[in-house]
Design goal:
Helices cover 28% and strands 16% of the residues. The two termini are 45 Å apart. By secondary structure, the chain is of the alpha/beta class. The longest helix has 18 residues. Helix 2 runs parallel beside helix 15 and helix 5 runs antiparallel to helix 6.
């Protein structure tokens, strides 16, 4: 079992269909759509070569641009910073280039099957990520209130942790029909998924994660709720999510998005970078051997967008940081949605007013990380007295919260993520420099491992990020608060533009914060594919009858609609 506190459904039955991010809000098989030999659709030949603005060069933008290029359109990608967005892999100055740090996304669940399609497409490899108590993690230390517990499996932890695990399982089963939904999603039973989820959305949209726990008899103990918040499940403590909507958490656990994680060997940023350079095997209009890079001068995206407004015939006019002005029949906006409120001058007419409200109400989580390079994976050394690993993957209520140990073999340099924190825990680091952060972290870890001199193994300067302080992100990812379901529905369904007035069409929202599963690369890809379908439809194109797209089946699987009054 890979979780500190396991999910309700165990994985012993090899006969079960694999779980994917198939719903619950929009149960559409994006993996089947991508795998179908008919492709994602066609546009009229009269539109071939037409330019489409793609604003944002993160994973969502690059996937959308790649697929639009294959259809014969000419994506024009705008990127304010670097290709990759929150897939950001950096090196350490003066160290071997093989040593990297994942400043953003670093672990991906097998249920991200659309993501896996692109990982396979560009020839990347993955390996198990060393989460708490994962099979790939030699050992885990849970340190709460000054007391440390060493464990290789959950059975090695005190009974109270197993009690908390049982409480979480019971809470999910009784309050959220966990087993029924998990099974329906495995079997891709759309009617059953929609039946269960419709009731839960109506019942739980106004409920926080913490309130959901408190309403359960299984979690009547404050001590159990406290331990659960600090240790959590899958990736560690979840108390920073306690104020968020319980619906956000259910999406994660139903799809096992927080379980069985894998990391991309060499770094996740390789995925969008390789797609940028890739020449598709099947492409319309463009000569064989065409790539996104080749469609851009000097193989570079255009700079930051500074203004968006509508012009005659409902076209979208884009001004960039160089002062260049271009007008497009369609645009895909994949950057962080708050950019539309701050860094980009926008016309109100770009979107319906209720969509502007949804953008303004979007709630983002803060997040900080700090990595250091070390000479070798010294944590695998054995303590002479106990026979245990001298240091372990660490969950604690101290400032560091989560410490991850990342190696590529016993005799090679390695990397430690000294601290990975969220929300208020992240804000505590915000005023500190990288070196100041490292000093506090080493002090905290020194209290847990008094016999280990971490500093003597450090071979380079630390690298750090606070996503709330990144000017083009302003946060790590979206996390809905109670009552935000209606807002999220508006944003996700924006690609269905036949329902909009003619003067509100032609610009399509995408990106992981538009998805139901923000913070997961799968959501970025799913919304990119929705936008691709939307652009294709906008240009008068269509999918093959044997491979209907998300818009073709929308009326059958549309997200639950809650009353506004």
């Amino acid at each position: 079992m890979t979780s500190t506190v396991p999910n309700a459904v165990q994985h012993a039955d090899e006969q079960q269909p694999p779980i994917t991010m198939f719903g619950p809000d929009f149960p559409y098989a994006y993996d089947d759509f991508l795998a179908h030999p008919a492709g994602l659709g066609q546009i009229p030949a009269t539109e071939h070569g037409t330019e489409v603005a793609v604003i944002g060069g993160g994973l969502s933008g690059i996937v959308a641009a790649y697929e639009l290029m294959k259809m014969g359109l000419k994506p024009v990608v705008y990127e304010a910073d670097r290709i990759g967005g929150r897939l950001r892999t950096v090196g350490f100055e003066g160290c071997d280039s093989s040593l990297t740090a994942e400043m953003g996304a670093m672990r991906f669940p097998p249920s991200s099957t659309a993501l896996q399609h692109y990982i396979d497409l560009v020839g990347l490899k993955t390996r198990p990520f060393p989460n708490p108590l994962a099979e790939a993690t030699p050992s885990t230390v849970v340190d709460l209130k000054g007391e440390s517990h060493y464990a290789e499996t959950i059975e090695d932890l005190p009974q109270v942790y197993r009690d908390v695990a049982a409480a979480w399982n019971k809470c999910l089963e009784e309050g959220a029909d966990f087993s029924d939904m998990n099974q329906a999603m495995r079997e891709r039973d759309v009617p059953r998924i929609r039946e269960i989820w419709a009731k839960l959305v109506e019942k739980l949209d106004n409920q926080t994660f913490y309130g959901f726990l408190c309403d359960s008899e299984a979690f009547k103990s404050f001590r159990h709720r406290e331990i659960f918040g600090q240790v959590g499940f899958g990736t560690g403590g979840w108390d920073t999510d306690f104020p968020n909507s319980i619906l956000e958490i259910l999406r994660v656990v139903y799809t096992e998005a927080d379980d069985h994680h894998r990391g991309i060997i060499g770094g996740s940023q390789q995925l969008p970078l390789r797609l940028w350079e890739r020449t598709p095997e099947k492409i319309v209009h463009w000569p064989y051997g065409t790539s996104l890079a080749q469609l851009h001068p000097n193989a570079e995206p255009r700079p930051a967008v500074t203004r968006l407004h509508r012009t005659a015939n409902n076209q979208i006019t884009v001004t960039d940081a160089n002062g260049d002005i271009r007008t497009y029949k369609a645009a895909v906006f994949t950057a962080q949605s708050w950019m539309l409120l701050s860094k980009i001058a926008c016309d109100d007419s770009l979107f319906p007013i209720d969509h502007w409200t949804a953008i303004e109400r979007t709630h983002y989580m803060e997040s900080s990380k700090l990595f250091v390079p070390v000479d070798r994976p010294f944590w695998l050394d054995k303590d002479e007295e106990t026979g245990r690993d001298v240091m372990s993957m660490t969950l604690t209520d101290r400032m560091t919260r989560g410490t991850y140990l990342l190696d590529d073999g016993p005799d090679k340099p390695a990397v430690i993520c000294l601290s990975y924190t969220w929300c208020d825990d992240s804000l505590k680091w915000l005023p500190l420099s990288a070196n100041e952060r490292m000093e506090v972290m080493l002090k905290s870890l020194g209290e847990i491992y008094p016999k280990v001199d971490i500093r003597k193994h450090i071979i380079g300067n630390p690298v750090t990020v606070s996503w709330e302080n990144e000017p083009y992100f302003m946060g790590a990812f979206k996390a809905n608060l109670p009552g935000h379901y209606r807002y999220q529905r508006r944003l996700f369904t924006h690609f269905m533009q036949d329902r909009l007035p003619a003067d509100k069409r032609g610009i399509f929202l995408a990106g992981d914060d538009i998805s139901w599963t923000a913070g997961w690369a799968e959501g970025a890809i799913q919304t990119a594919l929705n936008a691709v379908w939307g652009v294709m439809h906008h240009f008068g194109g269509a999918t093959d009858a044997t491979n209907p797209g998300p818009g073709d089946v929308y009326d059958e699987i549309a997200p639950v609609e809650l009353p506004e009054d």
